Amino acid sequence: MLLFCSLSLLCFSIQQQQQQQHRFRLNGKPVLSQREKLIQKIEAGVQRKAHFKSRNGCAACKQKRVKCDEVKPICGKCAAKGTTAACLYNNNNNDGEQSQQTLPIYQIQPKSLTLAGINQLANTIIPAELLLHHFYTHTSHRLMGGEKRQSIYRYHMLPLSISQHSLLHAILAVSARDLLYLHRHHQDCQHGYQQINEQQKLELSFYHHYHRFATLYKDDLLRQPSTETANLAHSNAFLMNVLVVADPACTSSTSTSNSWVTRKAKDNIDAAFSWIKVQAIHQTILKPYWKFVPSTFWYSVFVDDHHQQKDDQEQERPSVNTTTGIRNIIIDHLAIICATEETSTTTPERNVYLSAYKNLCSILTTPIHRTSRTPSLSAQIFGTYIKFMIELNEYFVNSLRSKDEPALLMFSIWLNRMRRLDIWWMNERAGSECAAIWEFLESSNNLRVREVYSGKQVCRFPQRGNPSSDPSS
């Protein structure tokens, strides 16, 4: 009897342990501990799920790190989002290999310049090392200025961009835009789909780096002013001016539809006018850094510009009354149109045209010799010409924005003179904006405006490749 009771208790104890060890779900499967699950996986053998990995997706999906369905010519994700221009495929179909990005017209081998970390930025579109090499060897010679400015671009701005990502993206964007300009104006070298495809890649690369630069530029302006930030701010401000003027979306053709003058809706006018506002506000943006300028690498250039402008003012130039030809017509009529007689009570509020008129007269009396269209010559007079834009007061800018005819007339004359400097990043914008303003002024009721404009003597388009054909010189 005692033995039977002991066996019964033992069986009951084992049953209780089994019930505590395994709890069952409603579907009859036991709830396993982590250790039991691990043992079960080891005994069963863990097999990786079979899948196919492809590296042949489009550039847009690769950049966003999302799976591409590889439908050509436009994949499903790009078609759904409307980003068809960014849907570019690699011509090399071998997995794991990067196709070499080549430019059909200007073959560049980036052997002399390699900066750490650069190749991680949008290399699926245009290699960043290629853009940096082009900036060093080509763009730095073509931006603006003589040897001193060019050395700043190459030996100061480029090294600074290693630690300042905003400047890095600005340099890459300007380089891509320069390559795009060269492709557009050398289409006689190569035709067909490949040429168009390369231009799409360059545009995509330009906007990628331009948008990154614009975002980082705003953050940099919040940093404490110092010598380093002053170097960065002046470098970024200069390149920002280049980028907003040379935006390919607004300069891709000679059409006047991109100008604020032809727009009607307020938002459209503001968007098309933004490039002028950016130019005009940079002196205000740079004001906190003025006391650090003497210790920056830009200081020697600014001193040279100041001495050049001072020498120009001291030179004997034709006075307003003795200036002959078309310049005489322009200056005399503008003086009447803008009521530029200066008094002790004259302020920008009282006469919004006075400051712009003075700078424009200085430009019109600065000769450009047609036989000396060299970069050094342009560098010498560039300060005089650009002074018109950077010294525009807010009242004159508002007059331009509201399509005031005297302001538009002076601005169009300045744009046309800028074209004669033959600056690649300015030519297309100046041409399209001039055309829009001249079409607008054709219907002017102001007789003197029409007389200045009469016969398009002031406003004749310089022929492509011949900026010196302007008769107002």
Structure explained in plain terms:
The protein is mainly α. Among the domains are: 57-87, CD2-Gal4 (Irregular), CATH 4.10.240.10; 124-298, no CATH class. It has helices at 2-21, 34-44, 59-64, 76-81, 128-142, 147-161, 165-184, 193-220, 227-245, 248-251, 266-286, 299-314, 325-337, 354-364, 375-390, 394-401, 405-419, 424-441, 447-453, and strands at 23-24, 30-31. Helix 7 runs antiparallel to helix 8 and helix 12 packs across helix 15 (375-390). The longest helix is centred in the middle third of the chain and has 28 residues, at 193-220. It starts with a helix and ends in a 20-residue tail after the last helix.
Brief overview, please?
Residues 57-89 form the Zn(2)-C6 fungal-type domain. It contains 19 helices and two strands.
Please describe the topology of this protein.
Layout: H1 2-21, E1 23-24, E2 30-31, H2 34-44, H3 59-64, H4 76-81, H5 128-142, H6 147-161, H7 165-184, H8 193-220, H9 227-245, H10 248-251, H11 266-286, H12 299-314, H13 325-337, H14 354-364, H15 375-390, H16 394-401, H17 405-419, H18 424-441, H19 447-453
Antiparallel strand pairs: 1-2
Helix pairs in contact: 5-6, 5-7, 6-7, 7-8, 7-9, 8-9, 9-11, 12-15, 13-19, 14-15, 14-17, 17-18
Keywords: DNA-binding, Nucleus, Signal, Transcription, Transcription regulation
Signal peptide: 1-19
Pfam families: Fungal_trans_2, Zn_clus
